[in-house]
Amino acid sequence: MCQGERDKATDSDRDVKQSICEEVVERDQGACQDCGRAAHDPHHVIPKSWFGKKNKHLCERKENIICLCREHHNQAHTKAARVRHLTLLRERYNYVYDSQPWIGALGEAYPVD
Ligand SMILES: [Zn+2]
Ligand SMILES: [Zn+2]
Q1: Which of 28, 30, 58, 104 is the most buried (most CB within 10 A)?
Q2: Number of domains in the chain
């Protein structure tokens, strides 16, 4: 699944490491987190370029990767979608983002408690 047809993936989704990919697919049970259909695309919720040089490695954590079907992946590269997915991951898996050094890139769009 991880090596599937990802020709249309934008940003740095192609860089998702196999080990992280497997972990995320298992977490999401291979289902698109938007619609529940089979998911073929691991997607970086926040793109690498938003992390800055120093924090780039944080992009490749499971907290920042979500399984999506092709259709929802194609709609996932807007700021609104990124905030929505981050919120979804936070609620579904109790991830904590508020203290992440890169969260500021989202500005007021991200609802920090
Ligand atoms: Zn979907
Ligand atoms: Zn993507």
Answers
A1: 28
A2: 1
CB 67 within 8 A of CB 33: yes
Expressed in angstroms and rounded, the spacing between residue 53 Cα and the centre of ligand 1 is: 31
**pLDDT tens figures, 39-77:** 978 999 998 888 888 888 888 999 999 999 999 999 999
Fill in the amino acid letter for 7. Answer: D
User: How many angstroms is it from 110 CA to the middle of ligand 1?
Assistant: 22
Report the separation in Å between the CA atom of 45 and the middle of ligand 2, taken as the mean of its atom positions: 7
**Which one, of 89, 29, 103, 22, lies nearest residue 59 by Cα?**
103
Q: What is the pLDDT of residues 6-51, one digit of tens each?
A: 444 555 687 788 889 999 999 999 999 999 999 978 999 998 888 8
Find the domain containing 61 and state its range: 13-109
2 in any annotated domain:
no
